[in-house]
């Protein structure tokens, strides 16, 4: 059973501007170390940061809470060896998921030159069995 769905689209230039203006202050507030390592290794990091930013927004929308009960870094985007993205919840987001009975989170990311988008589907824990 689906607990919630969320989608977000981000202008890559907006994230590139935030990185240019705020640098590490922005990056360290929003992204986990592994996300920074991955994005920074890309020829053009901004779309990769933007896709992860959109993923965090999409997951927060799927919870139905926005970021009222957890922070940006409580949602982490990782990649399987195949390249498929997946979500790891930390701290406040993990606690909220447990309290609400949220199980697996499905995530899809995409980006173009100008935009990045993410779609998140939160499943109920009963679906994990």
Explain this structure to me?
By secondary structure, the protein is an alpha+beta fold. The protein has one domain (2-128): Alpha-Beta Complex (Ribosomal Protein L22, Chain A). The chain has helices at residues 12-22, 24-30, 33-40, 45-63, 91-100, and strands spanning 2-11, 75-79, 85-89, 102-111, 115-124. The protein has a 3-stranded antiparallel β-sheet. α1 (12-22) packs across α4 and α3 (33-40) runs antiparallel to α4. The radius of gyration is 14 Å and the shape is globular. The N and C termini lie close together (12 Å).
Main attributes?
129 residues; alpha+beta; Ribosomal Protein L22, Chain A; 3-stranded antiparallel sheet; two-stranded antiparallel ribbon
Query: What ranges have pLDDT less than 50 throughout 5 or more consecutive residues?
Result: none
**Main β-sheet description:** 3 strands, antiparallel
CATH superfamily: 4'-phosphopantetheinyl transferase domain
**Percent of residues in beta strands:** 25-35%
Please count the helical segments: 5
Intertermini distance: 12 Å
Question: Mind telling me which CATH architecture this is?
Answer: Alpha-Beta Complex
Order of helices and strands: EHHHHEEHEE
Structural class computed from helices and strand pairing: alpha+beta
Chain-averaged pLDDT: 95
- Quaternary structure type: single chain
């Amino acid at each position: 059973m689906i607990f919630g769905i969320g989608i977000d689209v981000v202008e890559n230039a907006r994230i590139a501007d935030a990185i240019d203006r705020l640098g590490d202050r922005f990056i360290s507030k929003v992204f986990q170390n592994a996300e920074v390592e991955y994005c920074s290794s890309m020829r053009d990091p901004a779309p990769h940061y933007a896709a992860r930013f959109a993923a965090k927004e999409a997951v927060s929308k799927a919870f139905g809470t926005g970021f009222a009960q957890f922070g940006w870094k409580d949602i982490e985007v990782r990649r399987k060896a195949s390249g498929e993205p997946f979500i790891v919840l930390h701290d406040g987001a993990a606690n909220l998921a447990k309290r609400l009975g949220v199980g697996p989170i499905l995530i899809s990311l995409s980006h173009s030159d100008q935009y990045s988008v993410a779609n998140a589907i939160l499943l109920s824990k009963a679906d994990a069995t």
